[in-house]
C-alpha cells in the first residue's frame, strides 16, 4: 500500500461510500471494515478497485486454522492489498492464514500483505488485566503478539502508535505497523483508548496510519485528509 493515510470507510452502504469518495482521487488508500463488507460484499471491493484505490480489507479473522485458511483463500481472489487476522488466534492459525492466502492468490498477481491485530486500540490497561485476565502489561501483551505474528511469517501488525517504536526495535523497521486511533488535538477520542496524532505516529515509526471519523466526520473531509496527510508526512 502507499504510505498515505488509510481512510476507514465505515459507511452503511455502497451509495454513501461512493458519494463520500467523490471528493477523492484513486491515489488514496481506503479501508473496508465489517460494516461495509457484510452489507455490500465483494461487489464493493470491485467498485473500489475500478476507481484505483489501494484497499485494506479489515475483517480481523479469528477462527480455527482450517476455517481461516479457507477464508483467506477466498479473500486472496478479491485483489485487495492488505488483509488481517487476530494474533490472539495463535501462531498455527496465522500460519494457516498465510498458507490460504498464498494458495488463493491468482497466478501473476501479488499476494496481499497480511498483518495481525495485537490489542485493539479501544483496549486499555485495565481491560487487558481484568477482562482478558492477562498477567502482563498492555505493552508486553502487544509485543508478545507482534513477536508471534512475525514468527508466523506475517508482514506486520495492527497496534497503537504507542507501541510502534518498540515493535520496530524487536521486529525490524520494515515490519508493518499499521496504527488506527489517530486523532487531531481538537477531535474527541470516541471509543478509542490509545490515541495519537499524525505527527506522533511519524515520530514513533508507524508505517501506516488508519483514520476514520477525523476525516469522514469532518465538515470538509478532503481538507481534513490533506491536513492529516501533511502532518503525517511532516510537511507542515
Ligand atoms: O485496533 C484497531 C483495529 C482496527 N481499527 C479500525 O480502524 C478504524 C478507526 O476508526 P476511527 O473512526 O478513526 O476511530 C475503524 O474502522 C476500526 O474498526 C481500530 O480502530 N483499532
TrEMBL record:
Catalytic activity line of the entry: orotidine 5'-phosphate + H(+) = UMP + CO2
Domain Orotidine 5'-phosphate decarboxylase as annotated: residue spans: 4-228
GO molecular function: orotidine-5'-phosphate decarboxylase activity
EC main group: lyase
EC number: 4.1.1.23
Pathway in which the depicted protein is active: Pyrimidine metabolism; UMP biosynthesis via de novo pathway; UMP from orotate: step 2/2
Listed InterPro entries: Aldolase_TIM (IPR013785), OMPdecase (IPR014732), OMPdecase_AS (IPR018089), OMPdecase_bac (IPR047596), OMPdeCOase_dom (IPR001754), RibuloseP-bd_barrel (IPR011060)
Binding-site list for substrate: 10, 31, 58-67, 121, 183, 192, 212-213
Active-site annotation: 60
Keyword field: Decarboxylase, Lyase, Pyrimidine biosynthesis
Highest taxon of the lineage: Bacteria
Summary of subunit composition and partner proteins: Homodimer.
Family: Belongs to the OMP decarboxylase family. Type 1 subfamily.
Known role: Catalyzes the decarboxylation of orotidine 5'-monophosphate (OMP) to uridine 5'-monophosphate (UMP).
UniProt name for this protein: Orotidine 5'-phosphate decarboxylase
Species for this entry: Sporosarcina saromensis
